[in-house]
Amino acid sequence: MALRFTLRQLEYLIAVGDCGSVAEAAEKVGVSSPSISVAIAQIEAQLGLALFIRRHAQGVSLTQAGRQVLDQARVVLAEAARMTEIASQISGVVRGSLRVGCLLTFAQVILPQLRRGFVTRFPQVEFQQSEGDQDDLFDGLRRARFDVVLTYDLNIPTDLRFEALATLPPQAVLPADHPLAGRASLAPADLAPFPMVLLDLPHSADYFLSLFASAGVKPIIAERTRDIQVMRSLVGNGFGYSIANIRPLSDRAPDGMPLKTVPLSAGVRPLRIGLLQAEGAGQVQTVRAFADHARQQIAAGVPGLIQP
Fold first, then answer.
1. 292 alpha-carbon distance from chain centroid
2. What are the Cα distances from residue 293, in Å, to 117, 160, 163?
3. pLDDT the model gives residue 248
4. Tell me, what's the pLDDT at 88?
């Protein structure tokens, strides 16, 4: 009997396997949970195999057969993508799917406008985006969940290739009435006596704390959050200052409280924003096109990317 399931169903299968949850997979791929469940049930029925163990209120886990089928599903999708790539090269038209990951701390500032410009230029590309912390992005590239990632040069593994696009110096984010808000620039030693709201994401937190360690001082961490918008609101309401390398156009926190942004003094290590890829990804036409687009757009200037 011929097997009949679609590439889209295989994408849903991979999403469930990666997420360990039908609900999370549905959110990731942008469809309803019932659609995911139906697709998985159809694949299992076609194969005559149970691919997942269902645990009430605890998500799903792959069976041994499920792990093997999932690995092969990745191969099938990769080969399908290769067929699209061949057609694109022959026709000269950029088409196919493009899966872009972006670091949580600046996704809202840069990714939507990069995406809008790209899909306007290349309407035949199916653009999928996802946001995560640094470890999520590394894992996504290694598991081929992403084709390319926008992130900082923070602890980049040797098996991934980073191309810097812009240099972003750190800046202190202060309540508008903070005693240091009127300064033209600040050093970590100036900030150390005051309470800090730490943006506590993997690798990012280590970077922020290293700025103080390099200056021989230790910050007073009063609050921690993984959400940059929550950080800005905590700062705006006087719970402390924070540090960020991205400055939104608005000088107000999400709840409307006023903020003041002051650059840190020269000599403090900046971050570089850029493209991160697995080896060989740049050979794919859609990835090359997006990389070229990102280079052009960021070089032309993106609001929120304050360069020295």
1. 19
2. 8, 20, 14
3. 81
4. 64
Taking the C-alpha atoms of residue 32 and residue 136, their distance in angstroms, rounded to an integer, is 23
282 has pLDDT over 70:
no
Q: Given pLDDT bands bounded at 50, 70 and 90, which one contains residue 196?
A: very high
What CA–CA distances, in Å, run from 133 to 32, 59, 198, 202, 236?
A: 25, 22, 15, 7, 24
**What's the Cα-to-Cα distance from 256 to each of 80, 173, 213, 236, rounded to whole Å?**
48, 15, 33, 8
> What are 135's two structure tokens?
């470890």
Structure tokens, 303: 């609001």
Cα dihedral 164/294/136/8 (nearest 10): -150
CA gap 101, 117 in Å, rounded: 17
Which residues are CB-contacts of 139 (< 8 A; sequence separation ≥ 6)? 145
CB atoms within 10 A of CB 101: 25
Q: Where do runs of H (alpha helix) occur along the chain?
A: 7-19, 22-29, 33-47, 64-91, 104-121, 134-142, 188-191, 204-214, 228-236, 285-300
* pLDDT higher than threshold 90 for residue 175: yes
Identity (one letter) of the amino acid at 93?
V
pLDDT at 85 over 80: no
Residue closest to 294 by CA, chosen among 78, 88, 101, 96? 101
Residues with Cβ within 8 Å of residue 21, at least 6 apart in sequence: 59, 60
